[in-house]
Amino acid sequence: MGAMGDRNSPGRRTSPAPSPPSAAPKSQSPAASPPAEEAETSTAPAGILPAEYWIQQGLEESHNDNDSTFEDTVSSTASLSESILQYRTLHGRTYHSDKVTDNQYWTPNDEKQKESMDIIHHMIMLVLDGRLFRAPLRDDIQKVIDVGTGTGMWAIDFADQFPTADVTGTDISPIQPSWVPPNLRFEIDDATKEWTYPANTFDFIHSRYMFGSIGDWAGFYREAYRCCKPGGWVESFEPSAVMESDDGSLYERSPMDQWGKVFVEAGRKLGRPFDVPQQDLQRKGMEEAGFVNVDIWDFKCPLSGWPKDRKLNEIGMYSQLAIEQDIEGYVLFMWGQVMGWSSEQIGVYIAHFRRQLRDYNVHAYVRMRSVFAQKPYTDAR
Ligand SMILES: C[S@@+](CC[C@H](N)C(=O)[O-])C[C@H]1O[C@@H](n2cnc3c(N)ncnc32)[C@H](O)[C@@H]1O
């Protein structure tokens, strides 16, 4: 391979993940200490509390919410054809069209959710110190694809940064803006089906936040391998839905503990995992497909503004903002359609969850994993 561009030189192999402080101040908030009385209900599979539990708990007023106000932004949509705009609706929220895929994607595709996606893009840029990727790409890179591009923010920024590259963003929802760099186009394509691109097309295949969207990660990377040029790179950035703390401040049976458990169980039911880093699915899928030179970087992403460290605090604030922007959008389908909770049960759970999220005595984080790898120049298999 020729000279490597160094503008995005990767933080090599599993850099130390920032750890939350070990000593947690004692919490004053009802949300940060286990409920005095456990509900008279048994737990469902995998430690999941029954939906009724949250209604039985009641919701006392919290006095230590760290409320933040954030500005709204508006994005425009690109219309591609009529059928892909026939959105499904659920409790007033719109979801991608059934005409595009039989693979029910779990978040809405409306403005509320799109704003959350855009905030997450900004947050990940902070996590990666302003870089869009970690793979050692050449400056004269040609063909690039962002699979599951969402609002297309990553693809837009990449196309701006590499004006001579030809960038494609794909998704099952036509929610991308129409004013984009001239070297970028968006296409509707279901990444869980056989990809519509010929073999050896792309120099770089990027995907991000596809947890809960993909059942067969090995199959996903087989397609990526086929469509990647020899010597080209694949990169994946995935969070886990499992919320944790290192100091016990996020205790079992609390709303944030349940968040991960319900997502993992609902994902198991759907056949699309939400704990991708824990299952090491990116690395396994890439290696199984034949990619080599695998590089892994792990990060513990704070979920609110609790960290004292300035950078982590900022990341945590954006993380909290992204979640609070659309808690309902994140749980409606998985809790309601997959787990069978009623609207009331979901609503009450969300109120408990939000209160705990705002309690900075709870030092919660989710694991994130970035993995990149290279397609060999010659396929030795
Ligand atoms: C959480 S969003 C992430 C968007 C973007 N990658 C980012 O990081 O900002 C996941 C996106 O994947 C898309 N998606 C879900 N299933 C898909 C599939 N089978 N094929 C293509 N895109 C899919 C969704 O429509 C959604 O826009």
TrEMBL record:
Q: Which source organism?
A: Bombardia bombarda
Q: Which GO biological process annotations does it have?
A: methylation
Instruction: Write down the PANTHER family for this protein, in alphabetical order.
Output: ABC TRANSMEMBRANE TYPE-1 DOMAIN-CONTAINING PROTEIN-RELATED, METHYLTRANSFERASE
Q: Which UniProt keywords apply?
A: Methyltransferase, Transferase
- CDD domains xrefs: AdoMet_MTases
Check the record and name the Pfam families matching this protein.
Answer: Methyltransf_23
Q: Give the protein name, as stated in the record.
A: S-adenosyl-L-methionine-dependent methyltransferase
Cited Gene3D superfamilies: Vaccinia Virus protein VP39
Region (Disordered) residue ranges read 1-45
* Similarity remark: Belongs to the methyltransferase superfamily. LaeA methyltransferase family.
Q: Compositional bias (Low complexity) spans? A: 24-45
A GO molecular function term, named singly, is: methyltransferase activity
